[in-house]
Amino acid sequence: MKKIFLHIGIGKTATSAIQKVCYESISDDSNTKYFPFGLIGDVHNSLSDFHPNFKEDIFDEAICQFKNLDSSYNYLISSEFLAYASKDLINTLIKAIINAGFQPEVILVIRSFSDLLLSSYLQALKSGFGLHKGESIIDYAERVQKDLNYLDLLDKWGQCTAKIIDFDLNKKNIINVFLNELEINVKSNIELSRGVNLSLMCEFIPLIRQFDSRTPEASSEDRKEFIQRLLDFSKDYYYLSDNRFHKQCIEKISDEMERLQYPKLKQKYNFI
């Protein structure tokens, strides 16, 4: 029986780069294809009711296409919003996959909580979304830790088999590891590099917080230009960045999260 892989994230684990490669560059001889329905851009965000633009009729139309797929191939669905989809939607999605004659399999890419918390904080700071006013990295880590429970995220998909890809073990080759595990072939001239979302140097955290607090009247375009200049600098000089101080700020929180979750994860799921 062929599979429909459900790549549920998590964010900040080369998810955007994987989605871009799979949407644009899967070759004709690949055993796994990118599911062509339920897409917003190159991502299957229409298949999660956690996404702000979710529409039930579009979701229903997309899952009706499972029965029309060529059953000689596997298919990939990818959206980090699936990690936070409701249990009812997950059950509906899984049932449709099984009724179409495919086996659902969940793929979750995880990384150390200290790196994940810092990276997601920087992403929220960069975008201007996802942070409370004046929120520090410690405040942010304390607030979001309950939503970053890998066990809970996977337990919602309980009737599916699941695999975990360890981002930290495969950091230098994460896209290739993901593609190989899912039997995805891509066009030979494609460069498999990360960096779809440019990263800020953590040294800019206080500067951005000062900008937001002292210039609340700044237009979104002014803020975007300011952030872009910091990103341009970060791209050229990221090798000079040192995130040890910010990791130490959240060390107690991240260490406790890993102590509570990782032993149980390794007992229950296959790690890659």
Descriptive labels:
272 residues; alpha/beta; Rossmann fold; six-stranded parallel beta sheet
Structural commentary:
The structure is a single chain. The protein is of the alpha/beta class and 272 residues long. The chain has one domain (3-271): Rossmann fold. The protein contains eleven helices and six strands. It has helices spanning 15-25, 56-63, 87-99, 113-127, 137-144, 150-155, 174-181, 205-214, 220-237, 244-249, 251-268; strands at 3-7, 32-34, 74-78, 103-110, 161-166, 270-271. The protein has a six-stranded parallel beta sheet. Helix 2 (56-63) links the parallel strand 2 and strand 3.
Q: What is the CATH class designation? A: Alpha Beta
Low-confidence stretches: none
Distance between the termini: 22 Å
Biggest sheet strand order reads 2-3-1-4-5-6
**Number of DSSP E strands:** 6
Number of structural domains: 1
The major beta sheet can be summarized as: 6 strands, parallel
H and E order = EHEHEHEHHHEHHHHHE
Strand content: 5-15%
| Structural class computed from helices and strand pairing | alpha/beta
The count of helical stretches stands at 11
Write the layout of secondary structure elements.
Blueprint lengths: L2 E5 L7 H11 L6 E3 L21 H8 L10 E5 L8 H13 L3 E8 L2 H15 L9 H8 L5 H6 L5 E6 L7 H8 L23 H10 L5 H18 L6 H6 L1 H18 L1 E2 L1
Parallel strand pairs: 1-3, 1-4, 2-3, 4-5, 5-6
Question: What is shown here, in short?
Answer:
The protein is an alpha/beta fold and 272 residues long. The chain has helices at residues 15-25, 56-63, 87-99, 113-127, 137-144, 150-155, 174-181, 205-214, 220-237, 244-249, 251-268; strands at residues 3-7, 32-34, 74-78, 103-110, 161-166, 270-271. The chain has a single domain, classed as 3-Layer(aba) Sandwich (Rossmann fold), CATH 3.40.50.
